[in-house]
């Protein structure tokens, strides 16, 4: 479960209150039928007030994929959104939904602890297990006694069913034996508001009554309940989510006094603020105006103030509830969802949704308000888009209709039509709506809902900013974001290739220590074995590179500080966040439905993290041909990439060094090749040595660098072959004898000796192989070259 941290002491609250720029005319328009230009008006007001993040385009947008940007932006058209042609959306519900429109059902309930969608009939309970890939098959069922059903919840071990029959009675049924027991309360004393199962070690079920809480243990052997504890106080209504294990109890004349409980322990009290429409009015806060969301492991309570048209955000700690900020609303009715750690605020009257990413404590929306679309599966070959008039007929209901019930955290149940939808983020559309590559990359690295799309978009963005020849500082920041994310995830226990470990780590069990991602605050908290040659070599010798050729006006130190500043800003936030709260404890049953928090770290790394090798294959290899007209720019980008790799403690692929030398040689910059090799900016490898030898056909000193690199790397056979190619067969012979190189055929040495037309040299080579290789005399080469020697004498 998510264990609440203690509030920081002292509290340095960073309030980012957004004054809602909602003119009275706009409010009235949204409270009634939304005007045709509601979307444009809402977006205009947000932009005017400066509340919307700059994730929209001000000028010609930068493409995310190569090709026509318009095709990328029209994601609804490309992927089958059921909106008008060209409709943009950053969120959608997937079609087809789960259908539960079975005749004679007595309501639809959702058990968020077990992820069950439940539809009781007169004598049975039908239920569907909601999974990331929601099945469309028939439901499971359990027999029950006839009677009214107000709510249904299965126990966490799914061995018992709790059925609320009235405001004073709950029936418990053992699924194995079929035995039942009833828990009743006196009608004239108290009213049962609801109940739910919990995974607390001391009790199993909690009853919420108007007089307080009853905590009971369920004993399946005897099918009985035993009272463990009781909390007495007045309760008007309550909210609970299994994901947070948090109960919010409302009390008081206006229901504004909130008491929080987690695992039956009181954590904090807070009095909500409700604006008055008139001086003497006392508005009562309803349960529909309060929402519990869990994002990034933090528990928030969002409270709608209908008079001021604002959404107040509170964060729960173990000993305090802290007001974090205020979000504007543009509708008298809203709903709140949490999808992949993104808060969705649905403006129901305006039929638009606004997205918030509060990871950086910013309460500005990440995009303009856009409608929610119904999107078909990609495999569906039916018409991709339909007019907005046909949205209702597409599934027999209305978007944001009266029957829509938003379920925690990311489901929508259309009760009138018996449909269950799942909310999704359109990461492609969000990425296409910004030209700030580092920001959108940071956003993508925090997403876990569509792992393959995250990786595809990340690589495409880096590739695009290079092709568009963006400033080197921006490209460097973008690569820092991707590689830092890979390095951070690698330190969470995964064993992917490409991580360079320290000697202390190698002495241990060989597994990287698990590190909370919130606690990894920069390079200082993680063991990194950096490539000192790359770090210092680039810094010392970049000044010697012609800055005009590199097509940049900023020096290397500026790039380092710029990219480092971005990382320090994020790591500083994470460090302060860790300082104010204890690490969260997540139990096996605290996983939100398909929101990504239930995934294993290794799975996330394998699917999302972009390794240096993947950067090379999917970015540099693909842009090399198009950048050959300006190789200096690509070389400077590679230098920044090597800096990022070294800073993250990773290892660059050897073929990247080969590409660098090829690009430098293409511009006849051989002195820089020698500079980079001698200062270990280009790490020695067999691939690089072979490339240097190949380039040596136009520049002999470069070939010597390659030959020397073979010797330094201990590649004896390749070094001997290189000496033979250069005609140094006697030196190659001495080297082969010293290091016992027996894999090079003797015929190669003998041919070089014959080419010199020297009987003395040929005799020396024959004598060497006769002594060094015992079986040489039995070979045909011995007889042949013995005959040649006799003719030469």
Automatic annotation (TrEMBL):
Q: Where is this region: Disordered?
A: 497-534, 550-573
Q: Which GO terms describe its biological process?
A: regulation of autophagy
Domain Regulator of MON1-CCZ1 complex N-terminal, which positions? 108-223
UniProt feature, compositional bias: Polar residues: 504-533
- An example Gene Ontology cellular component term from the record? late endosome membrane
List the InterPro entries: RMC1, RMC1_C, RMC1_N
Q: Which domain of life is it from?
A: Eukaryota
Q: What is this protein called?
A: Mic1 domain-containing protein
Q: What species was this sequence derived from?
A: Zizania palustris
